[in-house]
Structures are given as C-alpha cells and as structure tokens.
Amino acid sequence: MEIIPGGVTAPKGFMASGRACGIKKDGSYDIALVCADDTAIASGVFTTNAVKGHSLQMTMEHIKDGRAKAVIINSGNANACVGEKGKADAAEVANQAAKLLNCRSEDILFNSTGVIGVPLDMDAVRAGIKDVIASKSYEGGHDAARAIMTTDLSVKEFALEFEVGSAKARIGGMAKGSGMIHPNMATMIGVITTDVNITQNLMEKAFKEAVNTSFNRISVDGDTSVCDMVVIMSSQKAGNNVINKEDSEYIAFKDALGIVCGHLAKEIVKDGEGATKLIEITAEGAKTQEDAYKIVCAVAKSPLVKTAIFGEDANWGRIITAAGYSGAFFDYESADIFIGDLMVCNKGAAVAFDECRAKEILKKDEIKILIRLNTGNCRDRMWTCDFSYDYIKINGSYRS
Amino acid sequence: MEIIPGGVTAPKGFMASGRACGIKKDGSYDIALVCADDTAIASGVFTTNAVKGHSLQMTMEHIKDGRAKAVIINSGNANACVGEKGKADAAEVANQAAKLLNCRSEDILFNSTGVIGVPLDMDAVRAGIKDVIASKSYEGGHDAARAIMTTDLSVKEFALEFEVGSAKARIGGMAKGSGMIHPNMATMIGVITTDVNITQNLMEKAFKEAVNTSFNRISVDGDTSVCDMVVIMSSQKAGNNVINKEDSEYIAFKDALGIVCGHLAKEIVKDGEGATKLIEITAEGAKTQEDAYKIVCAVAKSPLVKTAIFGEDANWGRIITAAGYSGAFFDYESADIFIGDLMVCNKGAAVAFDECRAKEILKKDEIKILIRLNTGNCRDRMWTCDFSYDYIKINGSYRS
Questions:
Q1: Residue A177 to residue A172: CA distance in whole angstroms
Q2: Do B224 and A321 touch (CB under 8 A)?
C-alpha cells in the first residue's frame, strides 16, 4: 500500500475541476466537479438531520439506483430552507450538467454547503457549472478539493494505491469539514473515488463500515448539519477480477478504504473551527457497545473537556463527569482514566500524578484520553478537537 | 406578593452564615451554613450523573427521612472522586456540626462544589464549621449566598412574602451556578427556605414541580455536575393553618415557590460562565411534550446557536438545524421561527426580514427564540446563555 498524490483523480477514470463562480464574495473557489469517464457505481451516506438541504434531498433520490456520472458541489450556500426555489434550483443544476455531460440527470449528484436560508445565485451557479465541466481534467482533484472548503483552513485530500490480486487499484478522496461536525452518518461532505472492480453491493457494504469507524466517529461541536454526505464512486477500471464475495481481495479493499476515510476524518477534526489539538477518546472495558459509544460521545462533546484540553489542563474530573452523564452504564468506582500514558484516576479516585509530565503530554498537538471501565469487553473510539477562542470568533460572525 | 430582602434568612426560623476557611486560595468566602432553629421538614432534588460527590451521597441518605436541621456547603472543592477519604470527611463534617448544633448527624446536609479529585483540607473545613456555626444569625443569608459561589460573578439570592389564608408566609433562596449547568435534576446548588406551614409530602410535591420548570429548564454548557442539588426546608412557623391538601393555599405556595425558583434559575443563566445574554427558547405546537423538550434542549445546547447569539447574528439556520437533529418529531416544512417578534423562517423557508430590526433585537441582553412547530399542542421552554470568548478563558484555566 502506497500513499500517492492526486486526490479524487488518482484512480483511473475520473476527472475533476474546481472554480470560482461568484457564490463566495471573496472570489475563492466555490464550485467543484468530480466526473467519471463512464457511469460509475455509487453509494452514499447522508445526514440524519430531519432538516435536509434541497440539493441533498435530490442527491439522495438520484443515488438510489447505485450509479452516478458526476458529483457537483458548491460551497458558500447550503441551498437549504429556501422553499420551492431550492428544489427547482437543484433540479436545474442536474438538468444542465446532464446535458453538458451527455448523461441522464438522475446520474448527477449535487450538494451545497454554506449558509442556510439564502437562495442560490443561479446565474453564478449556471456559469460555474459550464466552467467546471469545460475545465475538468485528470489532474483536477486538488482544485475540486479546494472548491468545497467553507471555513476549512486546509485542503483535505488523500489517495493510495494497493494490490488486489495481481492488479493495482487506487482509492482517492476529498473532504470538507470544520464546524457542525458530529455523528451520526455523513458528518461532513466527502467524495471518495476508486477504480477497484467490485460489485455495487460489496462496495456499499465496505463503505458503510469504513464511514462508521471514521466520519461517524468525529465530533467538532456536536451539531449535525443539514447537508452532510459522503459518497463513493467506482469506475471499476483497475483491471482486477471483479470482487463479488467477501474474500481476501474484498478485505484488501475494505482496509484501504478504511485508511482513506480515517485519514480524511482526522484531517477534518484537526482543522475543526478554531482547533489547536486533536483529541482521541477511547472507552474500553464497557458492558455493551452502546455504552462505549455513549461514553466517548459525551466526552467528545463536552465543552468543559474541550476547553480544559485547550488550556492544557489535566482536569480529568470533567472527563469522569461527562462519562457519568452519558447515559451509559458507568460504575465510576471501577473506572480508570489515562491522559496519554499517565494514569490520573484509579477506580474513580484521584491518583497523585506528576503535573509536569501531564503538562508535557497536554502541550502536544495530539492528545489521547483513555477511559478503562473494567466492566466488560466493549470498546469505542472517537476523535474530537479542543474549543478555543477562535471557535467563538469564527462562529460569532460566520453569516456576515 | 412582595419581594423582600434577606434571602434564605427571610423566612421565620432560619439563621445563616458565610465565612472564609481557606479552601479557596484567594481568601474569599468558602463555607456556608443555613440552619433551622428547630428541625425543619426538608426535601431535595439531586444530580442524575452516575458519578456523585461524596458529600452529596451522604446528603441524599440524610434527607430521606424528610427532615433536616442545617445545610452546610463548602465551595472551592467538590469532595468528589477521592475515594474512602471523601466519605469519611463527609461523615466527619456531619458529626462535628451535629455536636455543635445539638442534633442528630443525620439531620445535617452537606455538599461541596469546586474541583473534582482533590481531597478536602479538613483542618480548614473543621475550623470553618466552627466559625460558621458561631457566627450564624438571622441576617446571615447574604453571607451564606456569597460563600457558595465558585466562578459566579454575582450573588444569587431572592425572597418574597405572600398571603396564605389570613397569614403571611415567606420563601427565601440562594443559588450558585455558572458552569456545568444543564438539566436534568438539580442543575446547580440551591437552598430554598420557607416558613409556610405545610406537610412534608405537599411541600415536596410543589418543590419538584417548581424545580422542573426552573432549575431543570436551564442550560449553560450541557454538562451535568456530580454535586448538583437543590434542597428546600420549612420551619412551618408562618402561622397559617397547615396546608394538607391541594387547595387554594397550596396553589398560593406553589406559585410563590415557582417564582423564587424561576428567578434564581434565570440568575444562574445570566451569570453563566462568560455569558453576555440570556436566551429564552420556546417550542410550541409540538406533537408531544417530549418532542417539545427535546427541541428546546437541542437548541439551548448548540454551540453554534450560542456563538451566533454572542455575535448578534440572526443565523436561524443553526436553530432549525439543531431542532432537526434533536431526535424529536420535526416536520421542518411546517415550522416557523421567530427571533424576538421577528419572523425569520416560515414553514421551513427563509423569510425576507429586516436585518436592522434583527440587529436591534439581538443587541439586547435578553433574547427570545420561538419555534412554532404547528404539528400539535405541546410546549416547552428553556433558558440558556450565549457562548463568548470568556467561556473559553474561564474554562481553559479553571483548575490552575
């Protein structure tokens, strides 16, 4: 397995582009295209929010048949909560792109991310679609990744090559995140491409598992957006024998996919709004899987834990408190807590620990918190980031 | 009904005191006593966190018989998660106070608030208990209210006098809050005193209802502390005929109690860590009571909503988003949203509203958000505050 450049255009059979069409006032890239040479097999995971953006609702319909030609994403405007115009705009985008790409409009996936409740500027969008389609290329992955950013500070893309039988296959991906990142389901916008030859069913199965341990295990602020999705498309052009059962080649694909999704998910957390630290929270020894999940989730969401880590303060009282109100079975007098490799709480009681050592651990960019419950065999892990002044700054003035 | 001074010592039959015993390093008040002349009837509501402080655990036992002589509270140290010493220390406090007050140790309620995981400095506590008992007076309510503060900026106390039949009765209260304020159950530390003559059962019933619409309807950061409680004691000395059924005199008491608890609850939110604004969130027209609760809760907890209000930004997209992920039944295409009296969303779609008018509303210290669901008849209301730079500042360096 080898990390390679190229992002979503690393796999065979995909072109991409990113351009500025004027939705963002500062002139930065705001429209992205990822396009398969032929129709690709496709699958998606979507927000569980009861409110869904108009573009996203259309995409959820279009992907039902398991195939797609292209994904178009605009940033700067969520096309959400604008009424009938929002639906009509989404349909128009699909129709326009289908005409230019010579495919069915049902094979166009479209999503929008940004401010809610403001109608799309369709003059800008129409020109943008023309532009991204005209400029699409086999080297366009990076531009596409740039064009889906909102408050992201870093471009998030990743690709790798791996062996499947005697052939080499590739998986590429791009993502955007920043605020409103929280499970469940598609916790951001992500597009994964691959050229592995696999059935749609098995690709979907591997994809859902990969999403579950990556994008569904990150939290920035506990809010779940109305437009979030991750989609995967395969051109099936890698040249391997088709994967149609859960054999070693399927496992190779699933593992590689897990790495790509995990990498992008962590990139999202690291670049969480105002984040200065990546925090990995693990609960082990839980009675049930659900208990482990509830605990990592509560700790990852706690503003008090997140501000303590920002302040590089080994305030494990806030960790045990969050575990306590998580709703999980939690016998705190059996629980141990570690910050890095430092035990700070033993069977629910304080341990005299070396504060200097704790400071050293907390000064790092990546902090591990382990809650060992000692009441069972179940385990879960979640990534989150700290809460800093900049989170407030960014979110106190996003719309204006 | 008349607002009166005196806090917890406003009702007949209660003395109080607050002193500095050295738990807090800066020399400010850190030990409080509220003491009935005779044994009072008592009831309490306690944190639902699976982790509970040692002092609190003892108090939950002691109050089971529905009576108490005194409440002692120290601030600066939570006496939580310190193992066997924590239990022993709590017991010693009860024994010492019982001896000095000439009562059973089971009639002493004791609670502690502050840092978790650090053993109590018992030399300081012992001297403090002697001191508060020696200095207790019928004018001591204010000092007691000062002594329970942690990161609170304002002293929270309130009292009123009301008519019960031909007699006049009083209710007084003090509270501390600031961080970690979130339902359910006793979301902070509060002590309510009254002299109304009522049975313990009916006092408890009225108290639980009052807590439910006040202290259980506030949120500062969604964290639920391990030491939170509200207790009520009555000296039964007002001179009214005993209230032993749910008649008009019971209603008079319940209404007055609701006002005292509501006032203190709102004071807690206003003084939330770093808070600059009080936000009242109402959901009406929900299908079920639980749906209404889930929606106000999700909106009140959303860091994105709270930072938007701090930034005086009418970003209602974040409000509808939070309602959408609340887990409640939420048909967003039927929902209207108001900020103050300004409709910003109609049937799930943006309304062209006057941004200047919105700014005017958002500049105020108290902001009302109304989500009208139009799908049923149920309603709930919660108070929260905004998230500011100071929240991060306070919580990034609390322990040190």
A1: 17
A2: yes
User: Which residue range is the domain that position B74 belongs to?
Assistant: 2-270
Instruction: Name the closest residue on chain A to residue B326, using Cα atoms.
Output: A49
Query: How far is residue B371's CA from residue B300's CA, in Å, rounded to a whole number?
Result: 12
**Cross-chain residue pair A321–B116, CB shorter than 8 Å:** yes
Distance from CA of B304 to the nearest CA of A (A): 6
Check whether residue A248 and residue A285 sit in a common domain: no
Is residue A236 located within the same domain as residue A306?
A: no
Least CB–CB distance from B224: residue in A50, A117, A325: A325
Strands (E), chain A: 2-3, 14-19, 31-46, 67-77, 108-115, 156-164, 167-176, 189-194, 218-219, 229-234, 278-286, 336-339, 342-346, 349-350, 366-372, 378-385
Any idea what the CATH number is for the domain that residue B301 is in?
3.10.20.340
* pTM beyond 0.90, yes or no: no
Q: Are B77 and B143 in a shared domain?
A: yes
What ipTM does this complex have? 0.81
- Mutate which: A47, A51, A52, vs B, most B CBs within 10 A: A51
Same domain, A224 and A370: no
Q: Are residues B190 and B87 located together in one domain of the fold?
A: yes
For chain B, 400 residues long, the average pLDDT of each consecutive 10-residue run is: 97 98 95 98 93 96 98 94 96 98 98 92 98 98 96 93 96 84 55 98 98 88 78 98 97 98 93 87 97 95 88 90 93 96 95 93 96 97 87 60
What's the CATH number where B193 sits?
A: 3.60.70.12
Residue A86: list chain B partners with CB under 8 A.
Answer: 349
